[in-house]
Amino acid sequence: MSSSLTQRNPMTTPEQPESPPQLKRQHSTSQRAMSQTLTSAANLANLLPTGTLLAFQLLMPVFTSNGSCDYPTRVMTAVLLTLLSISCFLSSFTDSVKAEDGNVYYGFATRKGMWVFDYPDPSGLGLPDLRKYCIRIVDWIHAVLSVLVFGAVALRDKNAVTCFYPAPEQGTKKVLDIVPMGVGVICGLLFLVFPARRHGVGYPVTGDSGRR
Predict the structure, then answer these.
(1) Using an 8 Å Cβ cutoff, are 134 and 109 in contact?
(2) pLDDT tens track for 61-78
(3) Distance of alpha carbon 75 from alpha carbon 92, whole angstroms
(4) Does residue 108 contact residue 115 with C-beta atoms inside 8 Å?
(5) Are 78 and 149 members of one domain?
(6) Distance (Å, whole) CA 144 – CA 151
């Protein structure tokens, strides 16, 4: 009886072909890799001065004409990238200090301390001891790493790549895809080994305690 009911009322639906397990694993691996790539790119942007990064994002489409460059625009784009790289380098030597009036002032680190360039009193009354803000070897490391990170971000920009390499060969294209991410990952690890303790121009101020 049960067998006859089963034959008269088949409730089973045709099964859909499933993707092979290996193909699923490949899809999940590629999705994780893409997610990690986007996350690392976002983290790289956080290592750069906000003003420099904003200027890069706003000016690159204008200077490159959205990637359609001729010789003059290519030269102007190269000058822009050079100036922004210098900005990243110099920003690594800037720092901020909180005065007795409660305001935050910015300065440039030197061998003897810090030169505060926006403090209204030239005598420096009301400022803490600026000698502890003197320049250190780690500042030079951060400056070089910032330039490398900016280069990695620039090489991941579509307008910049199209401007300088409108029709790259297969080998050049692979280099442009691999080298920026490799440089970014290495620089990100070095920033973890040598953490930044300065809160200079373009970087967030998170407090003055425990920085030195």
Answers:
(1) yes
(2) 999 988 888 899 999 999
(3) 26
(4) yes
(5) yes
(6) 11
Shared domain for 85 and 63, answered yes or no, is yes
Task: Please give the structure tokens belonging to residue 38.
Answer: 């986007």
Contacts 24+ apart (CB under 8 A), 41-46: 41/153, 41/156, 41/184, 43/188, 44/149, 44/152, 44/153, 44/184, 44/187, 44/188, 45/153
Do 64 and 75 fall into the same domain? Answer: yes
Backbone torsions φ then ψ of 211, nearest 5 degrees: -85, -25
The count of C-alpha atoms lying within 13 angstroms of the C-alpha of 159, restricted to the half-sphere facing its C-beta, is 16
> Which residues, in sequence order, are CB contacts of 35 under 8 Å at separation 6+?
none
Residues 185, 103 share a domain: no
Report how far residue 96's alpha carbon sits from residue 118's, in angstroms, rounded to the nearest whole number: 10
Q: Which domain holds residue 108?
A: 94-134
35 falls within a domain: no
- Total domain count, the chain: 2
What pLDDT digit, counting tens, does each position of 144-167 carry? 999 999 998 888 888 998 999 888
- Are 162 and 69 found together in one domain? yes
| Residue 28 host element (H or E) | helix 21-46
